[in-house]
Write a structure and sequence with these properties.
Largest sheet: none
Distance between the termini: 53 Å
Shape: elongated
Order of helices and strands: HHH
Helix content: 55-70%
Structural class: mainly alpha
Number of helices: 3
Oligomer: single chain
Length: 68
């Protein structure tokens, strides 16, 4: 159920937004575990789906020289 919800959020809002929402859910459920309200966090172990690639914005020496 949790993975299906995450996938639906990713389809509607994008994978990064879905991962942010999963982080919030995991933290909330961890709090409930610490309070004794639930035995375990059912969202634990659900992986992230967003993969960031920032390689395009890294400036190498040649880029700095060309800019200057």
């Amino acid at each position: 159920i949790i993975t299906a919800w995450r996938d639906k959020e990713a389809a509607q809002r994008g994978p990064r937004a879905a991962d942010y929402r999963m982080q919030i859910l995991k933290r909330a459920l961890n709090w409930h575990v610490s309070q004794g309200n639930i035995d375990r966090n059912p969202a634990a172990g659900v992986g992230a789906i967003w993969r960031g690639d920032r390689s395009e914005i890294i400036w190498e020496t040649r880029h700095v020289e060309a800019y200057c």
